[in-house]
Every structure is written in structure tokens, then in C-alpha cells.
Amino acid sequence: MAHGDAQHCHNGAASLYVNYFEVAHNRYEFLIELGQYRPGRDDEPGSLSIHTRLALSPPHAKMLSDLLSRAMSEHEKANGPTAAIAEASTPFDIVLHSLPEFEDRARQLRDQARSKQAPRPQPDNFLHIKTGDAS
Questions:
Q1: Burial grade of 19 (CB within 10 A; 0-12, 13-18, 19 or more)
Q2: What is the pTM for the complete model shown?
Q3: Which of 68, 48, 67, 55 is nearest to 28 (CA)?
């Protein structure tokens, strides 16, 4: 069975939000840690929780890199350029810049709650790209 013919099954896997990641590598593998940074309040420091660790062979890391590049190109074709996160940004700034429409969505949800109308589910607007796709 070829890669593109493989069965694809989510088994109800939960989506986890990621706004923090680290990548390390050695000669034999790439290690990727994914997690969430939560800013602190006032004088409290923020917190970081790593919820997923990936270990990939170099060829699979390259495949993932190429797949992310293709997905980002398609995303920007459909939605316009994506702003880069500045190197000197604070973690809180990074979170804020990664969710530019957050305040609008929060305002809409508050308005819906006030009017006691249940929010309508949004259609799946994701562009699905698999490693077996040839485009």
C-alpha cells in the first residue's frame, strides 16, 4: 500500500492548542516539544506546560517542514500574508499577535450569550494536506 493510500483515522483525537515549541536535533533525530505558555498576572511569572513531545527521523522532519511550508503558502494565498512574530516579543505579545481576531470573536460570543442564542458551529475551513498529496 502506497503512502497516499493509507487509511486515515482520527479516533476522536483531541486538538491541543500550541503557542510554544522548541526544536532540537542530533545526527539521528529531531525532537520537537509542543506546549502552551500562559502569561502571569501582575508580578506573577507565566507558566509553561509541554503537552506533546515528538521524535522524528531527519527525513520525516524534512517532510514535516515541507508540509508546513506548503500549508502556509496555501493559507497565505487564501487569507493574505501572515505577520511574523518578532524575536524580541514577550510571550504575552506572541499570544496576542497570534490571535488577531480574538477580541472580535470574544465580542461576538458575549453578544450571543446576552441574546441567549446558541452560537452556530463554524464550517471546517481547513485546507487538508496529507504527506501523500502530489501538488
A1: middle
A2: 0.56
A3: 55
What average pLDDT does this structure show over 61-77? Answer: 95
Supply the range of the domain harboring residue 37. Answer: 18-114
Q: Are 52 and 34 in contact (CB under 8 A)?
A: yes
Residue 132 belongs to some domain of the structure? no
**Digit-coded pLDDT (tens) for 8-58:** 666 777 788 888 888 999 999 999 999 998 877 878 888 888 999 999 999
Coil, strand or helix at 114 = helix
Work out how many domains the chain is built from and give that number: 1
Domain for residue 121, yes or no? no
What one-character-per-residue DSSP string does 28-85 give? S-EEEEEEEEE---TTSPPEEEEEEEEEE-HHHHHHHHHHHHHHHHHHHHHH-PPPPP
Q: Considering only CA atoms, which of 32, 127, 17 is closest in space to residue 72?
A: 127
Q: 31 in a domain, yes or no?
A: yes
Please indicate, yes or no, if residue 12 is contained in any of the structural domains.
no
β pairing state of 47-56 and 20-25 = unpaired
